[in-house]
Amino acid sequence: MGVGASLDGETAEAKKILGEFTVAFSKNYTLLYTVALAKLQQKALMKQYNWKLDKCPYQPETPVRFKGHVLKRSNFFKKWNKRYLVIRGTWILDFYEVEEDYTAGKKPRATFNLSGYNRVDTDPNNNALAKLTALAEKAGLDLSSLPLPEKLPDFTMVCEASGKPPLVLQTIDDNDQTAEVNFKDVSRLLDRSWWLSPYMNVEDDEPHRLCFRQALWRTSWDMGFWTYWCGGGEEAMLTSTIARLIEWRVMDKVDAKLTMPWMVRQKIRNTFLSTIFSTCSNAVKPFWNALYGTIKDTVRPQAEEAMKPLTATLAENQLTLKGKVSDAVNDAAKGVMSEKVEPKLGQALENLFAPVNEAFQIIVNVFDGIIGEAKDKYKPEEKNFFLVRQYSWTSKRWDAEYKLRDMYDLLWALGLIFDEIWPWSIINRGSRRLGKNLRNALYTFEKRLEAAGGVEHWDTVAAEVRALLVSDCQRSVQTFGARILVMAIEPMWEKLVIKPCRELIRPLIDLIPEPVKLFIDVNDLMTDVLYTMLKSACQGGFAPFANRIKIE
Question: Rounded mean pLDDT of 37-60?
Fold first, then answer.
C-alpha cells in the first residue's frame, strides 16, 4: 500500500473507544464518589473531638510563589505569546491573558500541573544534537544541506512530558527585575513544582480525592487495559489514559497499513498519534467539567441527605463497640506500663519528651504574646478569623518547631530497633499539631470574645482560653508519645492480631451481598476496632509521662 493509505477506519475506531471510555468512567466515578461520600459521612459521625479548644475551620492559604509576565510558546504555530504567570502556593501554574484578568479574579486562560511532567530543562540548547553539530563544525564537515537543531532564545526553559506537548517558557524583564533574575526564580520554582505539585487539581473535595484514581483504574481494567498515571491533574490523567488505550488497541492496525519507507511511516504514525492526543484532550475538558459539575452540584447534595439515616445507625453501633473495647483495655494497659515499661524506659521517655514539652510551652507563650500585641489592632470579623489570618503564621511559632528537631537523634536510634519509626514523619506530625493548637486557640478566643460582648472582656476571655490551650497542649504531649509507641508496636500487632482475625471473619464476608459490601466493609470495621484497642492501650500507658510534663 502506498503513501495514500487511508486511516479513516482507525480514526473512527479511536473515537468509538473515546466514547465508550467516557461513558464507563462516568458510571464508575459516580458510584465510587457516592460510596466514598457515605464512608466519610459515617467517619465524621464517629469522630469524637476530645480537645478543649474549638476546632478552627480556617486554613490560611499558602501565599502565591510567583507573579509576573513571561513569554509562552504555542505548540502548533510556535509563536511566542506574552502571558501573566501565577505560580500558586499549591505549585499549580496559571496563565492569564493580562495581569488585569488575575486581579479581577477571572478564570485563567490555561492551567498546568507539572506533576505529570518528566523534567524541567533549563538549558534546552545544550542537547545531544547541538553537541554533535558543534563537533561536526569543528571537524570541518559541511552541514548546509542538513536541518540544523532549533536554537531557542536566552532564558528559555522547557517542561517535558511523555505523550504530551512540552511547555516552553521564556522570562523577560519584569517586576523591576532582569530577565536573568526572573529566569533563576521561575526555573527554581518550576523544578520544585515538578516534585511538589499535587496529583490532582481538585484537592479540597475529599470524596473526589479518594475515588478519582480508583474510578480511572477500574474503568481501564473493565476495558481490558492496565494503565498507570503520573499526575498532572484530572484532565491530564484522563487524556493520557484514553490516548494510551487507543494506541494499544489501534496502532497495530495502523502499522499493518503502512508499508512505505521507515521515515515516511514514522511521520504518518506520529501525526496520527498527535491527532489522537489532541482529539482526546479537546473531548476530555468539556466532559470532565460537565461530569464533576453534576456530581458536585446535584448528586452530592441528594446523596448526603438520602444516606444520613443509614450512616447514623452504623456510626452509633460502631462507637458503642469501640467504647466498650477502650474501657476493657485501658486499666490493663496502665498496669502493664506502670509495672514493666515505666521503670525501664522512664528516663529515656523523659529525655524524648523534654523537647516536646518545651515546644508546646513555646506555643502557649506565643499565644500570650499575640494576645498582648493584638489588643490595639483587633478588628472583629463575621467568621472570627481575624487573629488566625494575622498571627497564625508568626515567625515566633517556628521556635517551637525547631525544638522538635532536637528529637531527631533519639528517634533515629529508636528507628534502628523499630522499623516503623520514621523520625521526620514523627517530627512533622508534631509540627502540624503545634500549628493546630495555636490556630484553635486564636479562633476560640475571638469566638468567645465576640460572644462575651467585645474587647472590654479581653483579659477575662484570654485567661479562659489560655487554660484550655494548656490543657490541649498537655493532651498533645500524651497523644504524641502514644503515637510513637503505636508505630513501634504496629508491625507486630498487624502480624499477630489483625491478620489472624481477618481469616476468622472471611466466611462472614462471603455471606454479605456485593452491593452492601460497597458501603459496609467488615474488614475495615474489624481493623478499626483492633486499632482502637492498640491506641487506647498506648494512650493510657503514656498518661503518667504526660502528667509529669508541666506546661504552664
Answer: 79
Cα(403)–Cα(399) distance, integer angstroms: 6
Sorted by sequence, the CB contacts under 8 Å of residue 542 that are 6+ apart come out as 337, 478, 481, 482, 485
CA–CA distance, 401 with 427 (Å, rounded to integer): 8
pLDDT value at 136 more than 80:
no
Closest among 200, 90, 97, 112 to 158, alpha carbons compared: 112
Q: Residues for the chain: how many in total? A: 552
Contact partners, residue 380, CB within 8 Å, separation at least 6: 386, 446, 450, 454
C-alpha cell at 440: 484553635
> Which strands sit side by side in the sheet containing 80-87, from one edge to the other?
110-112, 93-96, 80-87, 66-73, 167-171, 156-160, 119-121
**Amino acid type, 151:** K
At 170, which helix (H) or strand (E)? strand 167-171
pLDDT tens digits for range 501-542: 777 767 766 766 666 666 666 667 677 777 777 777 777 666
Put simply, whether the predicted model's pTM sits higher than 0.90 gets the answer no
54 CA to centre of own chain: 25
Is residue 250 within 8 Å of residue 261, measured between CB atoms?
no
Backbone region of residue 185 per phi and psi (left: phi > 0; alpha: psi in -120 to 50; beta: other values) = alpha
Say if residue 22's pLDDT is above 70.
yes
Cβ(272)–Cβ(258) under 8 Å? no
Give φ, ψ of 48 to 5 degrees: -100, 125
Rounded CA gap, 262 and 319, in Å? 68
Task: Extract the C-alpha cell encoding 378.
Answer: 483587633
Reply yes or no on whether the pLDDT at 2 is more than 50.
Answer: no
Run of H or E including 133: helix 128-138
**Model pLDDT, residue 383:** 76
